[in-house]
Design brief:
Rossmann fold; 10 helices; 7 strands; globular
Length: 239
């Protein structure tokens, strides 16, 4: 249903919002709407997360590049945040093979510029709307080593799966030596003190073998363009 700006403004004002709140809400909606529109132009694929600070000669960049190539070879779209480092590596591998290489970029004052290996790109203003699209674009998640941003994205996916707010799709932590200390904290502190349940630790899989990710994507299958795993999820899931 199309709603004109005047109607939207009237509707939002019923909640007692001031003019700036209304403008902000419409900007949120605009960011999300544009994202949902681009999501319908490619099949759900594998979203690759990781540090923007990893150089081209780093082993994790090379591994991400190889993963991107192998995913494209198997017909899966590769989705990243569109920036440098791990993101560029994954996009590059898919792009060089001739596959779909998607970059959902964020507008920042520094550091974040779209990498040159994208077949599809879009810039977001808000982190939260970008994260929504990175998740909704994916049927499998691959988390390479990264910093606070990567940890934020990982935590968001885990809590959404934990609380049944999204389908339980495969989540891989690539680089066992990097992720094991964090996993041990979850195990020795969070689990031991009753903050999480044992089954929550099974939401993620630690691996050094990118073949595991490709196999998981193949098992998930190829979702048709203009369809999405989330379309019927909330109406068909158990209450």
């Amino acid at each position: 249903m199309n709603i004109d700006l005047e109607t939207q403004t009237k509707y939002l004002s019923e909640y007692g919002l001031n003019e700036e709140d209304i403008k902000r809400s419409l900007k949120y909606a605009h960011d999300l709407g544009r994202g949902l529109k681009i999501l319908r132009t490619f099949s759900q694929g594998v979203t690759v997360f990781g540090s923007a600070r990893v150089p081209e000669d780093h082993r994790y960049y090379k591994l991400a590049r190889e993963l991107g190539r192998r995913l494209a070879e198997n017909g899966h779209a590769v989705i990243t945040g569109g920036g440098p480092g791990i993101m560029e590596g994954a996009n590059r591998g898919a792009f060089e093979y001739g596959g779909r290489s998607v970059g959902l970029n964020i507008t920042l004052d520094h550091e974040q510029f779209p990498n040159p290996y994208l077949t599809d790109t879009m810039e977001f203003h808000y982190f939260f709307s970008r994260k929504v699209m990175l998740v909704m674009a994916s049927k499998v998640f691959a988390f390479f080593p990264g910093g606070f941003g990567t940890l934020d994205e990982l935590s968001e996916v885990m809590i959404l799966e934990q609380e049944d707010k999204m389908p339980k799709q495969p989540v891989f932590l690539v680089g066992k030596s990097y992720w094991k200390p964090l996993y041990k904290v979850w195990e020795k502190k969070l689990l031991a003190e009753g903050m999480i349940k044992a089954k929550d630790l099974k939401l993620v899989q630690l691996t050094d073998d990118i073949g595991d990710i490709v196999k998981a994507a193949n098992k998930q299958g190829h979702v048709k363009i203009d369809e999405n795993i989330y379309d019927d999820y909330y109406t068909t899931r158990k209450k």
